[in-house]
Design goal:
The chain folds into 2 domains: 5-70 and 99-178 and 268-349, FAD/NAD(P)-binding domain (3-Layer(bba) Sandwich); 180-267 and 352-384, D-Amino Acid Oxidase, Chain A, domain 2. It has 13 helices and 20 strands. It has helices spanning 12-23, 36-41, 50-58, 63-68, 89-93, 102-115, 164-168, 235-244, 248-251, 297-318, 322-349, 357-372, 374-385, and strands at 5-8, 28-32, 47-48, 70-72, 74-79, 85-88, 97-99, 119-122, 125-130, 138-143, 146-151, 154-157, 175-190, 198-202, 208-214, 217-224, 259-273, 276-277, 280-282, 288-289. The strands form 4 sheets. The chain has an 8-stranded mixed beta sheet with strand order 6-5-14-15-16-13-17-20, sandwiched between helices. A 6-stranded mixed beta sheet has the order 8-2-1-12-19-18. Strands 3-7-4 form a 3-stranded antiparallel beta sheet.
Length: 392
Amino acid sequence: MKTSVAIIGGGPAGLLLSEMLHRQGVDSVVLEARSRDYVLARIRAGVLEQTTVDVLRENGLGERMDAQGHPHDGMRIVWAGRSSYFINCYEHLGKRFMAYGQTQIQEDLFAAADRRQARVLTEATDVRPMDVASDKPYVLFRHNGVDERLDCDYIAGCDGFHGVSRKTIPPTHLQEFEKAYPFGWLGILSRTAPLPDVTYANHPRGFALASMRSSNLSRYYVQVPLDDKIEDWSDDRFWSELTARFPPKMAARIQTGPSIEKSIAPLRSFVAEPMRHGRLFLCGDAAHIVPPTGAKGLNLAVSDVFYLSRALAAVYRDGSERLIDSYSAMALRRVWSSVRTSWYLTNLLHRFPTATEFDQRAQEAELDYLNGSAHAQASLAEQYAGMPFEPA
């Protein structure tokens, strides 16, 4: 088998990269270790930045999103015993967000791939990128019981944090940065009408978040200890704990119901750099993880894919390698900006088990400062909305 770009991973990053390359006349093959049903069953992010919305629309992937998604202008912050305030990104920047689940984006990407009869090989196992530092890389894998070889010009590693792509890079050529937080998020999905705003709550019992996927699909989270188990949390216990962390009038508006998905995720930040080794390029979770506090994970994957597809298109269009050579540095500038935003919000809104009285007073002073300063709110709005893409 031969192609221009071998894409390892058939999640949103991999399939979006394939779609964008196709629209610029560049051939690709996608290798996904799991079945299509498994990939579609993943419950992930759902708050899309304006830049992500624009990319999806520009690549023919916006029709269903615009019909079913829920646009909103920013986020609300509430904390115990104080008034809430709204960080209005549209007012400050003219940018909106779209609540539209990653599952729906994945469905749209598979549908687009099917329409163009893309080569998307699911259940491709034992994937091994080879000779990535040479000018003739290739990928070995097993599919339908047969050992295969895929020759290519470039390899895009879109296979997530646990994938093979980053592990292919020699440790001597890679620097990794990591921060683990001493708590996790217990999240549920329910078929209930969400609150009108994405709302972050700081409470003595811990952080809570009210988010949305659509007009009748809500996503809620509460901060929990790392050793908590799903089986410890019945739906009744979750709703009781969630509503206890919101102001009474807001809590009374939260519609409860049976959970259709429930999970606990630890919070951590992780960045690997550079995001290129030879002809292997990392995208999305293969290169970086951010706490969900800033709603940046999927949006960063889209920005990586935007930069990489633009760079690869330039190579095949006019032979220019300028954007390929600057891919890692350019992508990492946006990555670190988002990592910083997520780190700031995580520290601002959570109760840390080791926090001192000094730490707590400083956190409250920061919340008060945001409440009273239009300049501080504008600065946070700019970071939360996501920095614009850099020009070519």
